[in-house]
Structures are given as C-alpha cells and as structure tokens.
Design a protein that fits this description.
The chain has four helices and seven strands, in the order βαβαββααβββ. The protein has 131 residues and is of the alpha/beta class. The strands form two sheets. Strands 4-3-7-5-6 form a five-stranded mixed sheet. A hairpin with a 7-residue loop joins strand 3 and strand 4.
Length: 131
C-alpha cells in the first residue's frame, strides 16, 4: 500500500540572512524558516508538523471536574469517532459505553449527548458515560 510521504524542510539560522534572502526561500515548498539559537518561528514549525501529520487533540473531562488540557488524547484526523476515542484510551471501554457528552466544534450545542459514531473535531472535550 502506498503511503504519502510528507516532508518539512526546516531552514535554520534565519537570523544570519537578509530579508531578501528570506524572500527567496519562500519559493521552496514545505519549508519553515527558524532560528534555533534565538528561538524564532518555533511555533510555526510546531504548527506545520501538526498540520502535516494530520493530528487532532481530544481532551478528557472526568465527571464533576474541569477538562484535562495538559494531556490531550492525540488521534489521526481520519479516526476520530467517539468509538475510536474510547479504543485509544482502552480497548475495554467501548463494551461499557452508554453515551458521551461532547463540548466543542463538533457539538451542535454544549454539551451534546452523542453515540459512538459521532465524529470529533480538534480540541473537542469528551466526557464518557458508562452503562
């Protein structure tokens, strides 16, 4: 099976080139200019890697608590149903699954009660309710 190979060219030491030279580099596809020494543009590099890997962050919310924004569940954007989320946490959770409450852009209202087929979006918050 063919897998798409994604490349990101990271061009370091942009602090030592001119603006004109930096403009020339804009013609290179899939590149991110950075200065590791001065920590310039590292956020853009992180965003580009995130975009190219096609990942989403789903936050968990235990009942009666605030969401855990420190440790999101990372998933590929092609596998973001509530069932995929449950299986990412633990394979046995789906057997006890009753419904989920979802806050975020995939919900029609906050919170929305959803089933296991509901498709989650990046940065949604999920609270699982077991049988």
């Amino acid at each position: 099976r063919y897998q798409r190979r994604v490349r990101v060219y990271v061009l370091n030491k942009i602090d030592s080139i001119s603006v004109e030279e930096l403009d020339l580099l804009d013609s290179i596809p899939h590149y991110v200019p950075i200065s590791a020494h001065l920590e310039w543009n590292l956020d853009a590099l992180l965003e580009k890697i995130w975009e190219y890997l096609d990942l989403v962050r789903i936050y968990t919310k235990p009942r009666g608590q605030i969401p855990d924004y420190e440790a999101p569940v990372i998933m590929r954007s092609t596998h973001t149903t509530v069932e995929d989320f449950c299986n990412r946490l633990h394979k046995g959770i789906i057997k006890q699954f009753k419904y989920a409450l979802v806050w975020g852009s995939s919900a029609k209202h906050n919170p929305q009660k959803v089933g296991k087929e509901h498709k989650l979006n990046d940065e949604d918050i999920v609270q699982l309710v077991k049988k």
